[in-house]
Amino acid sequence: MKPTSFLATLVLFFSLITGSAAFASEQPTVNINTADVATLASLSGVGESKAQAIIDYREANGPFASIEALADVKGIGARTVEKNADRLAVK
């Protein structure tokens, strides 16, 4: 194989790998005002009990006005909101 062909093959290979990795890491946005327990539990640092606490809080206090308001839920801290900020939405 010619050096230029080999180099082109390597560039293509690494492009495919990095493109696939970026695609695999994308996760869907979670609307904290409508999400169910399973969807909320998919967030980093949120299990089923915290997910249920989010729903209970939402039902008692109405929809969240901002993603930062999620930290008002007992057991959900600002760090959890920060870790998940790119996946959270209020609609």
TrEMBL record:
Classification via PANTHER family: ENDONUCLEASE/EXONUCLEASE/PHOSPHATASE FAMILY DOMAIN-CONTAINING PROTEIN 1, ENDONUCLEASE_EXONUCLEASE_PHOSPHATASE FAMILY DOMAIN-CONTAINING PROTEIN 1
A family per Pfam: HHH_3
Keyword match Signal: yes
Ranges in a coiled coil: none
One Gene Ontology MF term: DNA binding
Protein name: Competence protein ComEA helix-hairpin-helix repeat protein
Stretch forming the signal peptide: 1-24
Biological processes per GO annotation: DNA repair; protein secretion by the type II secretion system
Keywords tagged on the record: Signal
SMART domains attached to this UniProt entry: HhH1 (SM00278)
Domain Helix-hairpin-helix DNA-binding motif class stretches: 38-57, 68-87
NCBIfam families: competence protein ComEA helix-hairpin-helix repeat region (TIGR00426)
InterPro entries per record: Competence_ComEA_HhH, Endo/Exo/Phosphatase_dom_1, Hlx-hairpin-Hlx_DNA-bd_motif, RuvA_2-like
A cellular component annotation (GO) from this entry: type II protein secretion system complex
